[in-house]
Amino acid sequence: xxxxxxxxxxxxxxxxxxxxxxxxxxxxxxxxxxxxxxxxxxxxxxxxxxxxxxxxxxxxxxxxxxxxxxxxxxxxxxxxxxxxxxxxxxxxxxxxxxxxxxxxxxxxxxxxxxxxxxxxxxxxxxxxxxxxxxxxxxxxxxxxxxxxxxxxxxxxxxxxxxxxxxxxxxxxxxxxxxxxxxxxxxxxxxxxxxxxxxxxxxxxxxxxxxxxxxxxxxxxxxxxxxxxxxxxxxxxxxxxxxxxxxxxxxxxxxxxxxxxxxxxxxxxxxxxxxxxxxxxxxxxxxxxxxxxxxxxxxxxxxxxxxxxxxxxxxxxxxxxxxxxxxxxxxxxxxxxxxxxxxxxxxxxxxxxxxxxxxxxxxxxxxxxxxxxxxxxxxxxxxxxxxxxxxxxxxxxxxxxxxxxxxxxxxxxxxxxxxxxxxxxxxxxxxxxxxxxxxxxxxxxxxxxxxxxxxxxxxxxxxxxxxxxxxxxxxxxxxxxxxxxxxxxxxxxxxxxxxxxxxxxxxxxxxxxxxxxxxxxxxxxxxxxxxxxxxxxxxxxxxxxxxxxxxxxxxxxxxxxxxxxxxxxxxxxxxxxxxxxxxxxxxxxxxxxxxxxxxxxxxxxxxxxxxxxxxxxxxxxxxxxxx
Length: 626
Prior knowledge:
By secondary structure, this protein is of the alpha/beta class.
């Protein structure tokens, strides 16, 4: 009798088990008459197991051990073993899940007129359809109550970290007060971790309470009951490592501050909510509490997770990436039409786009985001979705710190002049972020000079610059740097006034002909800008230009002429010179005299207004060579 085992029964060790049962009259396992048979092992099986072992997968090692057991039985004379057929090529190995290797195995069984032995029901049905003799062996199953790795956990343990050559460590404590500490003196060994991995993977395959969430070369992630277990191996990691994480607390919404207000907010209408916080702060625990509250409030709730580790009740269906894509999962959920979807771990651009698409389709969305400040969670959307849509996508930000609700923000859009700016023509759509408890605005987000900026509104009074001041300073500096070649510094002198210090060689370039270039910058930014050279910069505390004994620079007295469009200062004989204009010895601005022997300043600019005020007050206007 010839039998051809496929990969599934080799990995499970079922062939040797059946042979030994046939050879042992006292065995409690029902034999299948395999003793004395010729076991024809397809090279396709060997190639697949070798590939799995090279990737560090325990299934590959288990299968190779079974092949060695068959060789040992052959040496005892219990069976004969032959290796036949061809090895699968690289493409066939990659497409093993598409049935390429199973087809090679069936070909061997057909060529030898042998019985195909399998634990794969699909393989069995296809083989029968092709007229092959099939012996189907039920997959090995067991009821798993406890994993070996669980022996490292106690009541206060959130995660266990095992690595070859290192003491076992664990994170212990309570949410917000976790400590990473060794839990054993003896270092972990390769054999020890391999045994744990085998136990975990077997439980994931055989127990209805476990499943493999991800299986890639170098990394396998298993969910077993409430444990999420990540198993890394070389070459992905420098040594074999197991990290097992479990929730240490389960909460409901009543355990948190603002519970009544948050309940009303969630049920008022379907919302877009970001739950943010640093790793280990308790974001997922809070998300679980929100999910179960929504179910109790008669909402249909689903989750999108990869891996699936939220500890929610059976009323909430947990979905993972469909075909490796959360976009496909979202498309499916839109057909299911849940009232709320909890999207755990919104990290990449694709995640934010999926979150936004579902929210704009009318689904209430709760996203979990890593962030060190509440506003940072909202800023993750900038550049990923259109700015004006952000309040439609996210209207609530909840920041969790040490397991508590630390901050709640309400997010709205208003058309207004941004805080700290004065010109009415600067009105624009502004995203206003308010403290949910006090109603006070905390931040504004808007487009300023073609850039999206986030401006804090409640800076400390003793801080050197407010958020608007820093923004204005940054934008003025950026504009001037695009014109000047040398060093540039900006000094704010008021909410809408700045002094710009540039190199002597750059001043005419920055000011432009008749002050046109700097006027354009002023009009764009809504800020009056005074351009000066570093040579004129004061070295003392007076805050003005260097003065002589009388307190002002000596200069030529001039009489400006005010026209409908310009303020003109006649300076015959000074064409091409750079001059400094003063009023009663107080510096006003620096300009280059035109070829016609005059300085022209466009009316309506900040410089012109300051000059006109000085004229109206009867101040003496003087011009000094710069």
